[in-house]
Amino acid sequence: MIELDPKHDRFLQPLMATLEQVAAIFERQLASEFPAVESLCSHVSRYRGKMLRPTLTLLSGVAAADGDLGVLESDDLRRLSAVFEMIHMATLVHDDVLDEADQRRGGETVNRLNDNETAVMLGDYLISNAFHLAATIGDADLTERIGRVTNTLCEGELIQLHHRDDLGLDLETYLATIRRKTAVLVGACGQLGARVAGGTEETAAALGIFGEHLGVAFQIRDDVFDLEGETEVVGKSVGRDLAKGKLTLPMIILLDSAETVTFADAVEAFRQRDASAVLQLLRDADATGKAIAFAVEQVEAAKSAIEGLPLGGTEDLLRDLADSVVDRSH
Amino acid sequence: MIELDPKHDRFLQPLMATLEQVAAIFERQLASEFPAVESLCSHVSRYRGKMLRPTLTLLSGVAAADGDLGVLESDDLRRLSAVFEMIHMATLVHDDVLDEADQRRGGETVNRLNDNETAVMLGDYLISNAFHLAATIGDADLTERIGRVTNTLCEGELIQLHHRDDLGLDLETYLATIRRKTAVLVGACGQLGARVAGGTEETAAALGIFGEHLGVAFQIRDDVFDLEGETEVVGKSVGRDLAKGKLTLPMIILLDSAETVTFADAVEAFRQRDASAVLQLLRDADATGKAIAFAVEQVEAAKSAIEGLPLGGTEDLLRDLADSVVDRSH
Q1: Which of A34, A279, A280, B134 is the most exposed, fewest CB within 10 Å of its CB?
Q2: What is the pLDDT of residues A121-147, one digit of tens each?
């Protein structure tokens, strides 16, 4: 779970207790009479990390209910939180296949532990169960909205694949891609969490925008970890973006601002998949620093989106949650 | 589309016209503003083949509505048909990744044309869109049932992967696997097609059982094609089951009935992935013939499931459809 200041304990304690319930729903949903399926799902449960998506879903529910912690008892809200975590897990499992990654949350990935085929099918099992669980909430409109979110998410992944090794990728396309791939889902946590808790349209929309900005910031932070982090600290394979020809914000900033000679060096280092040369060039140009600054701007935009809204005392916690998306060690 | 006797034209003509509308819904659902996504979806549209699933969905609707062809105008029934075809397409795209197949419906597979990563994500895009389209029907219970079907389908695929190279795989486990992997979806076409058309519980249940038996028969026929068919005739890569260590009914029958020497030869040929030796042993034992006979029994069981039910004059067509699942050249 995300680490936040104990001053928020009035909200954090019940939130953490509810996340346990969300985890129980998650596991119950994936239960199978077949031991082979069971053991795969247990392995995936180990991937559970910061729980950003269910945390934001629950917290948005509380905020939209004017701070009433009673909404955490809502089975619909808990299920919705589990749905978003399950969708996220499915993308992790399939991303690991795409990235040929070996490590995830300090353990072996499914593709490494079993094989790519099993990882593809396990991801499908998670997607299917996420939709099934969403449908059990019994609100067709909600299910449709979730389907729209995952359509967008998959489009984002396809566009990203399409731009592999595209050194002409511009900032606008990069942002449109990570918005689709990552931010729209986090936005849905805010928006639909508020909606299921009975919040107003205005509050739901604002928490949706809050979540989208958080999602963009989160992805940029992750992209920087992938470039300069260490597997032991980050807990998952790093250097995968470069290895797979995936251009992210620091590299886009570098290429955009570089003089002719540096530009040629950067292109060459990228093409050669020379991680240390790329990192040196990024550091010389302060490109990772500028990328983090961009992420911080997104955090500030998130805070602005909820400014002045009555959120039942959760305002401070939401702001700290926003900051934590960039200020994290892994 | 499945080829059937022109004597059924009273039903077949409107069915074929409606399948065109179903195809239009399918394409509209997958439309994307991104050319890269668009072109992938157009490629997948080429995979459209026998349209067994949407045909059975529509026909079950007509049968459940006592032969009233007016139900073919129902947008819900058309969408449901498109949903089932889309789920099927998603499984084809991911199966081709799993099987490392090159050919599908006489053209290149997505994994071959692009790469495995794109095929994984395109399959996800299809699954997501199938659920989204299902949710637009606006019936939460229906969406939940569809989710349950795809949960089962993925479980079937995972169990199949688990039993790769398991020469001790018995008939019961094989049948339980193909039931989950293939038959439950075809059963849902019958059952939910009838349900959406306003049929009685009894009719829907009977058409569900009809579809399940058809699904089992269809899978066995496909498994035999994979062993003894030719790519040019079948239109897709063959010999993939053996190449991937997948035991299917003919091989199970062979191993089950073989004398000691033949058994050892069969195990050896299977382990060596020696397709011609496997085929020779299967032919000597008439194992593919016995597998087809088993499939024919399933077709007969399908017919029995709807015997005596009032189906508005579609009885004959349903029986011919059942026969066509085994009596086909590809």
Answers
A1: A280
A2: 999 999 999 999 999 999 999 999 999
Would the pLDDT of A48 be above 80? no
Q: Where are the alpha helices (DSSP H) in B229-314?
A: 231-234, 240-243, 249-257, 260-271, 275-284, 287-305
Q: How far from chain centre, in Å, is Cα B179? A: 11
Which of residues B228 and B207 earns the better pLDDT score? B207
In angstroms, rounded to a whole number, what is the distance separating the alpha carbons of residues A327 and B8? 68
Which distant-in-sequence residues (6+ apart) come within 8 Å of B7 by Cβ? B316
CA distance B327 to A192: 50
Q: List domains and CATH numbers for chain A.
A: 6-326 (1.10.600.10)
In the predicted model, what is the mean pLDDT of chain A?
92
- Are A219 and A180 in contact by the 8 Å Cβ rule? The answer is no
Q: How far is CA B166 from CA A42, A297, B156, B267, in A?
A: 23, 55, 15, 10
Torsion angle defined by CA atoms of residues A197, A202, A207 and A210, in that order, rounded to the nearest 10 degrees? 180
Amino acid identity, position A228:
E
**Residues within 8 A of A (CB atoms), B 156-185 only:** 157-159, 161-162
What is the Cα–Cα distance from A205 to A305, expressed in whole angstroms? 9
Of A144, A157, A159, the CB nearest to B132: A144
Is the CB of A158 less than 8 angstroms away from the CB of B118?
Answer: yes
Please, which residues 281-320 of chain A have a Cβ atom closer than 8 Å to chain B?
A: none
Q: What confidence tier does B99 reach under pLDDT thresholds 50, 70, 90?
A: confident
Residue A288 has pLDDT above 90, yes or no: yes
Instruction: Provide, as residue numbers in chain A, all residues whose Cβ is less than 8 Å from the Cβ of B147.
Output: 128-129, 131-135
Exposure on the CB side of residue A286, measured as CA atoms within 13 A: 4
